[in-house]
Amino acid sequence: MNALDLIKIRRDLHQIPEIGFNEIKTQAYLLNKINELPQDFLEIKTWRTGILVKVNGSHSEKTIAYRADIDGLPIKERTNGIGYQSTHDGFMHACGHDFHMTIALGVLGYYSNNQPAHNLLFIFQPAEEGPGGAEPMLKSEELREWWPDEIMALHIAPEYPVGTISTRVGMLFANTSELFITLKGKGGHAAYPHTANDMVVAASHLVTQLQSVVSRNINPLDAGVVTIGVIKGGTKQNIIAEEATIEGTIRTKSMETMQIIKQRIQQLVQGVEVGFTCEASIDYGANYCQVYNEQERTEEFIEFTKKRPEAVFIESPEAMTGEDFGYFLEEIPGFMFWLGVNNQYGLHDARLEPDEEAIEFAVHHLISFINTK
Ligand SMILES: CC(=O)N[C@@H](CCC[C@H](N)C(=O)O)C(=O)O
């Protein structure tokens, strides 16, 4: 696949973003492209909406895996007339998974024409943004049968110029937990507040109280995040809301801090139940363990990158982003790295327009690295 093919593939994928475990068109598109490649060294399996492709090496002593996530986000795209916007209204590849898939296809395309020494395994994984595809995929028969010896993955980084690679040994991304809180009270007429228990007021208090968890309950030398991304409640402006829901995410560096935050959220929610005479429930949704880069493989990749004249290496700070690739790294030695894609808008921004030049750079970098192994 040449650079032009890859850009077309990226644009095609950009137009069909689908959320976790609904990646039907995405899977069909990827399978179509994979089936067009020379098949001599390839074996292909599907797992739910994901795909596994094994490239059989010429004298393999190990299997090296490369993982790309394939799901999009529920964001209404607001890019500036790019001509290949999402055709799925309200959904967008705003976290770069269209890049991740395209780069994986580019590397796979090369090795389908040039047999590698070792076996390679390309993992197209669904549902990274939620509810989490990595953990169940790791338990699947399909992956167990082709278990790799080492693994790598990348994530686009809009804040870095094209040609930049950034990573670190140890924690790269944080532990995460989703957070869904439902408050049930008593609805009523807007003019008779004394006969109702207003869940819009209860939810507003709770959101404000949740802001105190990190600032008041976590050691300032540690780190944590509680972000509420959604608050919903009520049906009409003159009806007191019977129900409200709050949705967010928790991020921590340690699992101990995650427990402290969850305990404190529990207490605050119980307080709201008493204070506003309502019933509350908490659901922690999908939880991801941190992305922890294994020392030997990460250092090998950093040393390789530093020697490449076309690449700029930056030692990455830890980030409070999450990634279920952490589950792969719990079981298989390897690493994740940031790939510069140079854009003023960040991840999960409806205006994100990563620079497509990064695709060819990444494909060449990965092929050159894999060829050293
Ligand atoms: C790289 C990135 O942006 N990843 C997501 C992962 C989401 C995990 C989960 N759905 C949650 O919200 O906790 C992120 O938001 O960091």
From TrEMBL:
Keywords: Amino-acid biosynthesis, Diaminopimelate biosynthesis, Hydrolase, Lysine biosynthesis, Manganese, Metal-binding. Catalyzes the conversion of N-acetyl-diaminopimelate to diaminopimelate and acetate. This is N-acetyldiaminopimelate deacetylase. Belongs to the peptidase M20A family. N-acetyldiaminopimelate deacetylase subfamily. The Mn(2+) ion enhances activity. Mn(2+) binds at residues 95, 97, 129, 155, 348. InterPro entries: AcetylDAP_deacetylase, Amidohydrolase, Bact_exopeptidase_dim_dom, Peptidase_M20, Peptidase_M20_dimer. Its cofactor is Mn(2+). GO terms for biological process: diaminopimelate biosynthetic process; lysine biosynthetic process via diaminopimelate. GO terms for molecular function: metal ion binding; N-acetyldiaminopimelate deacetylase activity. Pathway: Amino-acid biosynthesis; L-lysine biosynthesis via DAP pathway; LL-2,6-diaminopimelate from (S)-tetrahydrodipicolinate (acetylase route): step 3/3. Residues 181-270 form the Peptidase M20 dimerisation domain. It comes from Alkalihalophilus marmarensis DSM 21297. It catalyses: N-acetyl-(2S,6S)-2,6-diaminopimelate + H2O = (2S,6S)-2,6-diaminopimelate + acetate.
